[in-house]
Design a protein that fits this description.
The chain is built from eleven helices and 14 strands. It is an alpha/beta fold. The longest helix has 21 residues, at 79-99.
Length: 326
């Protein structure tokens, strides 16, 4: 009889790849979804309609499951509400998993929980970030809450870097579409380190976390290679078919971003006239925090994942050009 995993976020970018890998690797997946029209169920995939805010909708579906993989996240306009929903939903899911005898709980987080230095090596001993963006703080709050618990299923927290591959997600979905429509600011001339992980490698890390003898604590999941943002955007520009980035010093990018965020009538008129005169595509603004982060040359180390999970990423940006789907 196949082991069963309960998966949240199965219709998302990462979740879809996790479903595909697990169902082809001898697992049966029960997937929680809010969507009314998820992908068709199959022999090893069944759907559970519901929401993390309503424990009753999924608790019975946890019966007989060997593990939970939690990829879903809440979304809310209010940052405080967002974090509260994320934390409460995650804790409710883990409590229900423990109640139903589930042995292992895998939470997919992000390297954005860490304070990002200007250079050097970052591992799981690094401090949590003090940045105030809603996404990072929500993920930090979840991790703190999970790690504070002293009972329940074995806990593993996977912290992926920038997830790319097969034209989807943020980095090879949204970003690529923005580049097709205009230009992106790239600070420090693209010399910052991207800290990438291919989505299929991330799915493989999830599988490793499910099958290793014992799991505990946090695991950075990156390819460990010092690939620059310049190399990453070179690959995306090859896909777009034209230059689609403005690569300047960090200071110049911050100044340009401030101008681009100016929504005053005169500022917008100047930008529109400038584009018409030069025939150039629009340049999209970026938050200062994102530009400063992209200037960092720090490398996130996957050494603990290699040692404990026996995880070895196999996909390289260079071989896959832009999407890395092969």
């Amino acid at each position: 009889m196949k082991p069963v995993v309960f998966l949240t976020g199965a219709s998302g970018y990462v979740g879809r790849h996790v479903v595909s890998l697990l169902t082809s690797s001898g697992w049966a997946v029960r997937a929680l979804t809010r969507r009314r029209d998820p992908a068709p169920a199959g022999k090893d995939l069944s759907w559970v309609t519901g929401d993390l805010a309503d424990v009753d909708c999924f608790v019975r579906a946890l019966e007989g499951c060997a593990a939970v993989v939690h990829c879903a996240r809440a979304n809310h306009d209010n940052a405080t509400e967002w974090s509260t929903l994320d934390v409460e939903g995650t804790l409710a899911l883990r409590a229900a998993a423990g109640q139903m005898g589930v042995q292992r709980f895998i939470h997919v987080s992000t390297i954005s929980v860490y304070e990002l230095p200007t250079d050097g090596l970052v591992d799981e001993t690094g401090p949590y970030t003090t940045r105030d963006d809603a996404y990072s703080q929500s993920k930090v709050a979840i991790e703190r809450a999970l790690l504070a618990q002293t009972d329940g299923p074995e806990l593993g927290i996977l912290q992926p870097g920038c997830v790319y591959g097969s034209s989807g997600g943020w980095w090879t979905g949204t970003v690529l579409e923005l580049m097709r429509r205009g230009m992106l600011l790239v600070p420090d001339h693209g010399r910052g380190i991207a800290n990438l992980i291919h989505v299929q490698d991330l799915a493989d890390a999830v599988r490793a976390a499910l099958t290793v003898g014992r799991i505990d604590g946090r695991f950075i999941i990156t390819d460990g290679r010092p690939i620059t943002w310049a190399a990453f955007y070179d690959a995306l520009e090859a896909e777009v078919g034209r230059p689609a980035t403005v690569r300047r010093s960090t200071e110049e990018c911050l100044t340009m971003a401030a101008r681009l965020r100016d929504r005053g009538v005169l500022a917008r008129l100047r930008r529109e006239l400038g584009r018409r005169w030069t025939g150039s595509p629009p340049v999209f603004p970026a938050e200062d925090s994102a530009l400063i982060q992209a200037s960092s040359r720090a490398v996130f180390s996957p050494a603990r994942a290699a040692a404990v999970l026996q995880f070895r990423p196999t996909r390289r940006l260079a071989q896959d050009r832009s999407t890395g789907s092969r």
